[in-house]
Design goal:
Elements lengths: L1 E5 L3 H14 L4 E6 L2 H11 L3 E5 L7 H8 L7 E6 L15 E4 L4 H16 L7 H10 L17 E6 L2 E6 L5 E4 L4 E5 L2 E5 L3 H7 L5 E5 L2 E4 L3 E6 L5 E5 L5 E4 L11
Parallel strand pairs: 1-2, 1-3, 3-4, 4-5
Antiparallel strand pairs: 6-7, 8-9, 8-12, 9-10, 11-12, 13-14, 14-15
Helix pairs in contact: 1-4, 2-3
Length: 259
C-alpha cells in the first residue's frame, strides 16, 4: 500500500508519517504535499492507494482535492485530517469516509488503519463516489463541477507573441498548456504566452467548450479529432489538422470514455 500525506504544516506531515510507521509499518508514504495543488499533481503522477488530506490548505483545500478525485476512474481511499472539530461533528461521524483530528493519537489512527485495511481486503467496501459526493455536499464543497461558469465565459485573451501583444478571440484557441511561469496559448498560426495560471484560466472558460485533460492542459473541444492509446497505455488526444498529440491524465480519462 502506498500513501500520500497533504498538509501545509511540515511538522504535522512528519508527525502523521511517524505515527503511521508505528501502526502500519507496511504502508509506504511515497509523497508529501504542502498544499492542495501539489497534492492533486502528485496523486495524478504517482497514483497512491490512500491519501491523507488536510482540510484547510492554501490553493485547493482537502475538500477541493477530494471533489476532483471523486469522478476519476480509480480514486484513492481518502482520509480527511483536520484541527477543526466543526468539520467532523456530524458529517464525518455518519459517513463512510474517515477523518482524523490533529494531532492524531495512536489509538484513533489504529481505528482508521483498520477501516482502510478492511476496504482494501474487500474492494466492494470502498467508499462509492456517491457517498463521497454526499459528504462533500454536506460540508459545502461542490463534488461535481457546475455545468456552466458562474460568470460570463472569457471571450478575448491578451497574449505576448515575441515583441508583440496579440488580442486573441477565444474561438481561435486550440489548446492551453502551462509552463513554469507562463501559460502557452496555441492557435493556428503559432504560440503566444499569458501569465494567467491554468487553474485560474479554467474558471474563466466555458467548460462545455474547453476540456481540461491534464493538470497542465486545457483543449478546445471543437479541435479534438479523437483519442488513441500509445504504447505505454496512455490515452492521447489527437487534434484536427495538427501533428501533436496531448496526454490525458488518469483523473480525466472519464471525459473520453464514450469515444
Amino acid at each position: 500500500m502506498r500513501a500520500l500525506i497533504a498538509d501545509d504544516e511540515a511538522h504535522l506531515r512528519e508527525y502523521l508519517e511517524g505515527q503511521l510507521k508505528s501502526v502500519w509499518p507496511e504502508l509506504r508514504v511515497i509523497a508529501r504535499a504542502a498544499n492542495g495543488i501539489e497534492a492533486l499533481a502528485m496523486i495524478d503522477e504517482q497514483a497512491p492507494d490512500v491519501v491523507f488530506l488536510d482540510i484547510r490548505m492554501p490553493g485547493l483545500t482537502g475538500l477541493d482535492v477530494a471533489a476532483r478525485l471523486v469522478g476519476s476512474a480509480k480514486p484513492p481511499h481518502i482520509v480527511f485530517v483536520t484541527a477543526f472539530d466543526q468539520y467532523a461533528v456530524e458529517a464525518f461521524e455518519h459517513s463512510a469516509v474517515d477523518y482524523l483530528l490533529k494531532p492524531a493519537s495512536i489509538e484513533r489512527l489504529e481505528k482508521t488503519v483498520a477501516k482502510l485495511k478492511a476496504r482494501v481486503a474487500v474492494p466492494a467496501a470502498a467508499v462509492p463516489a456517491v457517498a463521497l459526493q454526499a459528504l462533500l455536499a454536506q460540508l459545502g464543497a461542490a463534488a461535481v463541477p457546475a455545468t456552466a461558469p458562474a460568470s460570463a465565459p472569457l471571450q478575448w485573451i491578451r497574449a505576448s507573441h515575441g515583441e508583440e501583444t496579440r488580442l486573441i478571440a477565444i474561438e481561435e484557441v486550440i489548446y492551453f498548456q502551462s509552463n513554469d511561469k507562463y501559460t502557452s496559448v496555441f492557435v493556428a498560426d503559432g504560440e503566444s504566452l499569458i501569465r494567467t495560471p491554468i487553474s485560474k484560466l479554467r474558471e474563466q472558460l466555458d467548460e462545455q467548450q474547453f476540456w481540461q485533460i491534464h493538470r497542465s492542459v486545457i483543449v478546445a473541444a471543437r479541435h479534438v479529432a479523437g483519442t488513441r492509446q500509445d504504447f505505454r497505455g496512455r490515452l492521447m488526444v489527437q487534434l484536427k489538422g495538427r501533428p501533436e498529440q496531448l496526454v490525458v491524465s488518469r483523473n480525466y480519462v472519464d471525459l473520453f470514455r464514450g469515444m
